[in-house]
Write a structure and sequence with these properties.
alpha/beta; Rossmann fold; about 50% helix
Length: about 270
């Protein structure tokens, strides 16, 4: 009996130590990579940060591999707001409220998508259009699209007040995954919504989750269950697309774009 209790206590102690190690490692990663602390740095410094994270994360990755096999993708915490969900490591109720109350300025260009539908690509296109093709995301310019374009409901992006004013029109490029029902509307702003075939969108989500979470990523069947449910982050694909489609029919300052059209004729989409 004493041996069993000792073994149980030892296992609990090991589990707590492992959890503490992962917690402090992840907190360190977040501190290094959040907002301009990461995206505002030169490329060489960002690469050095990645190498540091990779080196210091060896033990944490082993722990997470074991945890992933045990949990099977059931670890993900979510934040609820306005009838939608988002992963808690990306959004909080406070960031959702801040985004919901955001007042677009005249000339703001808001790039909206359901996740993994061409968001970053469209942000870069808008950036180059506003910069008349002379935009520089290297060390001599704005360095990174995430240092240029704030994600208004996110925890870890550049703050909206720090967003640079681009081009002769001094415009901001703003990112969101919010459904139309929660996105702040202004007739003086411009909106570009990008949709993508749901099968292609889902495949990209699976690849992204695997890259981001590694062994902790939910297996594809669990991801498919989430994707097809009301719990899908930022809302189910059909409702998300329908809401923005209705906005594009109702408001002349909302442009509805298909990812597939961007791939087949990017010049026409940009024009």
């Amino acid at each position: 009996m004493n041996i069993a209790l000792f073994a149980a206590g030892f296992l609990v102690a090991v589990a707590l130590a492992a959890a503490a190690h992962v917690f402090f490692y992840l907190r360190h990663v977040i501190r290094l990579t959040r907002g301009n602390a990461y995206f505002g740095r030169p490329l060489a410094e960002r690469r050095a940060i990645k190498r540091e994270i990779e080196t210091r994360g060896a033990i944490a990755r082993r722990i997470l591999t074991i945890a992933g096999r045990i949990l099977g993708g059931r670890f993900l915490l979510e934040t609820r707001f306005g009838g939608i969900s988002a992963p808690s490591f990306k959004c909080s109720r406070e960031t959702f409220e801040r985004a919901f109350c955001f007042e677009p300025e005249p000339g703001d260009v808001i790039v909206a998508t359901q996740m993994k539908c061409g968001t970053t690509w469209m942000q870069q296109i808008v950036y180059e259009i506003l910069m008349h093709g002379r935009g520089d995301l290297g060390d001599g310019g704005h360095r990174h699209i995430c240092a240029v374009s704030p994600w208004i409901e996110s925890l870890d992006n550049v703050d909206i007040d720090d967003a640079p004013r681009l081009g002769p029109g001094r415009r901001r490029v703003i990112k969101t995954h919010l459904p139309a029902s929660l996105c702040p509307y202004s007739p003086a702003a411009k909106y570009v919504y990008v949709t993508r075939h749901p099968a292609s969108c889902f495949a990209s989500i699976v690849d992204f989750a695997t890259m981001l979470w590694g062994p902790l990523a939910p297996p594809p069947p669990r991801m498919l269950e989430l994707f097809c449910s009301q719990r899908m982050w930022w809302g189910p694909w059909p409702a998300h697309v329908a809401g923005w489609w209705h906005w594009s029919r109702r408001y002349s300052n909302v442009l509805f774009v298909r990812f597939e059209d961007m791939r087949s004729d990017l010049g026409a989409v940009a024009r």
